[in-house]
Amino acid sequence: MFPRVAWVHRGLLRSCARLPVCMSSSGIGQKGILANQVAVVTGSTDGIGFAIARRLAQDGARVVISSRKQQNVDRAVAALQGEGLSVVGTVCHVGKAEDRERLVTMVLEHCGGLDFLVCNAGVNPLVGSTLGASEQVWDKILEVNVKAPALMLSQLLPHMEKRGKGVVILVSSIAAYIPSVELGPYNVSKTALLGLTRTLSLELAPKGIRVNCLVPGVIETDFSKVIYKNEAFWNIVKENYKLQRIGQPEDCAGLVSFLCSPDASYITGESISVAGFSPHL
Ligand SMILES: NC(=O)c1ccc[n+]([C@@H]2O[C@H](COP(=O)([O-])OP(=O)(O)OC[C@H]3O[C@@H](n4cnc5c(N)ncnc54)[C@H](OP(=O)(O)O)[C@@H]3O)[C@@H](O)[C@H]2O)c1
């Protein structure tokens, strides 16, 4: 009934199917590599964020789910609690200061602190060129994709600092390295996240907080439908992607769990691609 969850750390292959307590929805008695830790994942009611939230919870963390729409939060929380996972949820549009504040309050009230922050929420309101983008489009993309992760972290940081450790994961895109002409300002925002990763990792290293960046290739979600529903794209996949497929949200989730785990304790400031091989990198 429950999905089999396996992970390999320190050379051990372990199966969550053999650990019934990891399915507790109370958060008490959790087991797994991330047991008794608290994770916030933004934009986590669908796609990559949802897969990350599920994986962190399967690996033992208590996870705070959020996105802009209450009905999506309710659906995601019900689905994961139905799998016996320890999750709570709240509405949080990452570009809104009051929503971020509400998220912080919920984290403290329901979880008493925080260990992991995954800044996954991102938008692309424009398919078009950089110079064709209006000021409004620029503001929205930079606000949600670049400013919001930094502001969210600054609001949550004091609570991570209290624990003397923490992990932050930003979510960039392969578009940061291989810009697409149709995604002008989005490319730029995702490149900025590579810089934000380096800067934050430097600033936060003395506090014991690691900052890394997930760089997804094309992953099958609602967000990327315009790309993978296009036949020309599949010709590129056949020619260049040796794995002959596009990615699934779950392909990204394992890396995030690893980066949060103690096995990644000496990894910070890195941007890691999950892109099924790109001939351009
Ligand atoms: N899919 C890809 O091929 C791909 C490739 C590279 C990078 N990425 C990056 O991966 C991240 C996730 O993309 P995805 O493909 O998983 O997208 P998705 O399937 O469309 O899911 C997006 C999630 O974010 C929420 N969301 C959207 N805007 C938000 C906001 N302003 N504040 C809070 N939550 C918000 C959505 O729920 P609500 O509608 O309820 O808010 C939903 O839960 C993005 O940062 C994207 O740039 C994706």
From TrEMBL:
Presence of the UniProt keyword Magnesium in the record: no
Protein keywords: Oxidoreductase
Superkingdom of source: Eukaryota
Keyword Oxidoreductase: yes
MF-aspect GO terms: carbonyl reductase (NADPH) activity
Entry-linked NCBIfam families: PRK07231.1
Assigned protein family: Belongs to the short-chain dehydrogenases/reductases (SDR) family.
Protein name: Dehydrogenase/reductase 2
